[in-house]
Amino acid sequence: MTAETPSRRPRRKPGEAREALVATARDVFVDVGYQGASLRQIAAKAGTTQAILYRYFPSKAELFAESVLGPVQAFVQTLTDDWRQIPTAEVSTPDLIAGFTESIYDFAVTHRGLIAALLGAHAHGDGFTTDAKTSLTQTINDLVGRGTEEAAGRGWADIDVHVALPATMSLIISTALLNDWLFPPALGLDRERILKELIRYEIRAITGGQPPG
Fold this sequence. Notes:
Elements: H1 14-36, H2 39-45, H3 50-56, H4 60-84, H5 93-110, H6 112-123, H7 129-154, H8 161-177, H9 179-182, H10 191-207
């Protein structure tokens, strides 16, 4: 290679190119939102071209669904699958609620950018959100189905799981997303203290009794 010959970037394997596009798109959507992002911008940041991007994702909506909605759906599905592996008789109600709450809270704190990007796109009424909501609703319905089984096994006959479970998830997620606003550092409220009270609150609501100290 002579001094005048430009160096070529190593060619990625197809799977690696797709993964790079998804990872880059996720960062861009989190930074500037669905409306602010462009496929040209994402392709450039990923070190490729729009033509290559279109081979994998024919539209911005599909790329957004894969990079932003996908991880949220995968988390909820994993939560459901893991819950199905837990025999009702082997886990106490407080421990079950604690594990559920901690998993959702920690995911929301770690991936608050994804959730904010998803909510922002929905708030602006972008066209892709109808299919996205349908897809996410189906995944949450799987979780609600497992919750209904759990309620029956634990004798929670007075709980409307179809309302209570999504509402509880919303409570946990919103607390995680807004914790810097709700709990300024000066208050000294760390993760453990916040989770402890959330869990106590949920146990009271579900069992109607006093949670263990």
